[in-house]
Amino acid sequence: DGGITQSPKYLFRKEGQNVTLSCEQNLNHDAMYWYRQDPGQGLRLIYYSQIVNDFQKGDIAEGYSVSREKKESFPLTVTSAQKNPTAFYLCASSKRTGGGTEAFFGQGTRLTVV
Amino acid sequence: DAKTTQPPSMDCAEGRAANLPCNHSTISGNEYVYWYRQIHSQGPQYIIHGLKNNETNEMASLIITEDRKSSTLILPHATLRDTAVYYCIVRVEGAGGTSYGKLTFGQGTILTVHP
Q1: Nearest by CB to A42, which of B46, B98, B108?
Q2: DSSP at B81
Q3: Among B42, B101, B108, whose Cβ lies nearest the Cβ of A50?
């Protein structure tokens, strides 16, 4: 089945440690996105990538890093510089061009930093 | 990027139509209107999108005003499972520009469908 997969679903880390969240898609989509969601809030864009080896900062990129070495994969690293990393993280992908480029979302990773 | 404004919450009786408004008064010619919904603790789900014509699919209808400054999502026969947060988004589809393809979510509307 085609889709977008985030792993793990739940992740616990100690404060000060970097952690990498996985996002893989087999939809042959060029564009991929990372969002953060805090309780009772909407989604905020962290980073997005329109094509392999290229990505742009979203609205809240500080303390995060990404890479896009393969079309299928867009991992997000939450670094120790992120002041409040506990949140629900969502990855999405879409076609790059044309009307009808709806985004498909993964089921999210809930990160808790203790 | 064009911004969207939605009411924070709405109620609807089961079986009735739910009409969710969205204001996007600064929308530009190459921006589409998209609607998504998010059920608690899940990833958002695509519902429908449009540019300037009204659209309908198996889930909903989208009515876009002639000046494109606002739109309404219609769930024709709401069920309890339609209770969710509904997001209205505008997205640049044409080539070029730093916001090309960028998907920006607002706060959305919490729709509660009650028996």
Answers
A1: B108
A2: G
A3: B101
Low-confidence ranges of chain A (pLDDT < 70): 1-2, 96-101
Percent of chain A, pLDDT > 70?
A: 93
Tokens 């890093």 belong to residue:
A65
Q: How confident is the model at residue B40 (pLDDT cuts 50, 70, 90)?
A: confident
B3 interfaces chain A, CB cutoff of 8 Å = no
Which residues, in sequence order, are CB contacts of B65 under 8 Å at separation 6+? B71
In angstroms, rounded to a whole number, what is the distance separating the alpha carbons of residues B26 and B74? 22
Q: Looking at residue B98, what is its pLDDT?
A: 47
Tokens for B7?
């009411």
State whether residue B26 sits within 8 Å of chain A by CB.
Answer: no
- Between the two ends of chain B, the Cα-to-Cα distance in Å is 39
Q: Each residue of A79-105: pLDDT tens digit?
A: 988 989 999 999 999 876 555 567 889
Please identify which residue in the block is written with the tokens 């896009």.
Answer: A68
